[in-house]
Amino acid sequence: MSSQQRSFNRGPRSCYKCGQVGHIAAACEQSERLCYNCHQAGHESNDCPEPKSKNAGVNCFKCGGPNHYARDCKSSGDAKTCYNCGKVGHIARDCTSSS
């Protein structure tokens, strides 16, 4: 696998604690970690009472939403999400973030 493929497959960085794009767990203001499957607080994904999502833990590159891929995204518009910083409005080659 080339370094370009590895970089693309990594996608935007998202917080492991709350699942949001744009910051990492160390900088997260969420007091409790969320379940990767249902995105609710109070339990881990292996104890989740909801049916397991086949895309649990996946973030969409188009809208930044959880549990789906860009190809399946229902979001309207052509919002560009940066693969480097995860912010909407520009792409990685134009990113000014040092992250």
Automatic annotation (TrEMBL):
Keyword Metal-binding: yes
Keywords of this entry: Metal-binding, Zinc, Zinc-finger
InterPro entries documented for this protein: Znf_CCHC, Znf_CCHC_NABP, Znf_CCHC_sf
Domain CCHC-type: 15-30, 35-50, 60-75, 82-97
Residues spanning the membrane: none
Domain of life the protein comes from: Eukaryota
Pfam families linked: zf-CCHC
A molecular function (GO) term: zinc ion binding
Keyword Zinc: yes
Record's protein name: Zinc finger protein GIS2
Organism: Candida viswanathii
Record gene name: GIS2
